[in-house]
Design a protein that fits this description.
Helix content is about 30%, strand content about 20%. The protein is of the alpha/beta class. Helix 3 runs parallel beside helix 5, helix 3 crosses helix 6 and helix 3 crosses helix 8. The protein is globular. It binds NADP nicotinamide-adenine-dinucleotide phosphate and ligand 3JN. The site of ligand 3JN has 11 residues, from loops.
Length: about 350
């Protein structure tokens, strides 16, 4: 069996750690693995699957002889180091938004648009976590009945904002009764002028606002959805909200499909047939997806599927997934697996 030299940039972070876990768990054909981060964590030893790994500082030379480089260290690092990795022959799978909307870069959810990988030039973008779980659940609906409109409200976990945001939620939760003061420094964003506590709170801001009143996270959902579904005509609008949940993003989604006369049961069946989706939808038994139950699971969970009372083509759904797994690490590893399966991991093979 052919094996590959693999690098993870951002290996000390929330997403990077899960990429390492998934590569090991899924028996990715690894010849060697290099864990990279900033100089701050160089020398740190981490344990995964009973093995010890030492983190090194990420530099252009780090990518010599690397076949697959997974990036999750922020867009600025990808902009500088991804071209260095590609120049040295690596296939880069980038978890940041740096290249997602670049027309020459495939933006891929393997169950939805694997054909987009065919045109890669050494770099494949992993979509935003909130986008991935939504398009995974809606693509079977689009294929069967067409899709004209999506209105989504997200309920996002703090792990989407990084390892420090998880620590902040836990520490604020422990201190809440003593009212030890506002220790908020991570949310809505680490760089923002004002910070708000997330424990026992809800923050209707993820990333920064633009002049139209939408946040960057909301625009990511709008633009990435159209690109992945390869349909600019779908109307998409999003409201992205942070909740005091550690892991697992939830989404309330309203859609208008392209056909009249479709029942909720037909929609439920189509979604349940799709790869990677589990339908949990039995109101009589109080069965529906929840983030606590989705944590550490690979699937995207869908429930509360029901027809809109007034619109003949309108439906409501509730979609939940582990944002660090299908939303980031798992999807990235699945992209690499698909490149190997199709024999196109090297851009010279195209
Ligand atoms: P995190 O927990 O804060 O981890 C950040 C990682 O980046 C750490 O490993 C950090 O290393 C590394 N890093 C920071 N500066 C660096 C530098 N100059 N050189 C090399 N490595 C550096 O954040 P996270 O949640 O894992 O997210 C990381 C990135 O992944 C985000 O910025 C985002 O672009 C992407 N992301 C994508 C999704 C998605 O929706 N698909 C979800 C979450 C995050 P040190 O420990 O050395 O500082
Ligand atoms: O907040 C979340 O739940 C998801 C955050 C994703 C994220 C965080 C910082 C920078 C991204 C992303 O992947 O869209 C980025 C980014 O690369 O822009």
């Amino acid at each position: 069996m052919q094996t590959y030299n693999v690098a993870i940039v951002g290996a000390s972070g929330a997403v990077g750690a899960k990429i390492l876990d998934k590569l090991i768990e899924r028996s990715f054909p690894i010849r060697s693995i290099k864990l990279l981060a900033s100089s701050r964590s160089a020398g740190t030893v981490i344990q995964a699957a009973g093995r010890l790994f030492t983190i090194e500082e990420a530099k252009p030379e780090s990518f010599q002889d690397i076949d697959f480089a997974f990036f999750s260290a922020g867009g600025a690092i990808s902009e500088v180091l991804a071209p260095e990795a590609i120049r040295r022959g690596a296939a880069v799978i980038d978890n940041t938004s740096a290249f997602r909307m670049d027309a020459n870069v495939p933006l891929v959810v393997p169950e939805v648009n694997p054909q987009a990988l065919r045109n890669h030039r050494g770099l494949i973008a992993n979509p935003n976590c909130s986008t991935i779980q939504m398009v995974a659940a809606l693509n079977p609906v689009k294929e069967a009945y067409g899709l004209e409109r999506i209105i989504v409200s997200t309920y996002q976990a703090v792990s989407g904002a990084g390892a420090d945001a998880i620590l902040e939620l836990k520490s604020q939760s422990r201190q809440f009764d003593s009212r030890a003061g506002n220790t908020a420094a991570q949310l809505p964003t680490a760089g923002s002028e004002r910070h708000y506590p997330i424990a026992f709170n809800v923050i209707p801001q993820i990333d920064v606002f633009d002049s139209k009143g939408y946040t960057k996270e909301e625009w990511k959902m709008i633009n990435e959805t159209k690109k992945i579904l390869a349909d600019e005509s779908i109307s998409v609008s999003a409201t992205c909200v942070r909740l005091p949940v550690v892991t697992g993003h939830s989404e309330s989604v309203y859609i208008e499909i392209g056909q009249d006369g479709v029942s909720a049961e037909q929609l439920r069946r189509k979604i349940a047939e799709a790869k990677g989706i589990i339908v949990q939808d039995d109101p009589a038994k109080q069965e529906y997806p929840m983030p606590l139950a989705a944590e550490n699971q690979d699937a995207v969970f869908v429930g509360r599927i029901r027809k809109d009372p007034d619109h003949p083509r309108g439906f409501h759904l509730w979609i939940v997934a582990d944002n660090l797994l299908k939303g980031a690490a798992l999807n990235s590893v699945q992209i690499a697996e698909k490149l190997i399966e199709d024999g196109i991991h090297s851009r010279n093979d195209n």
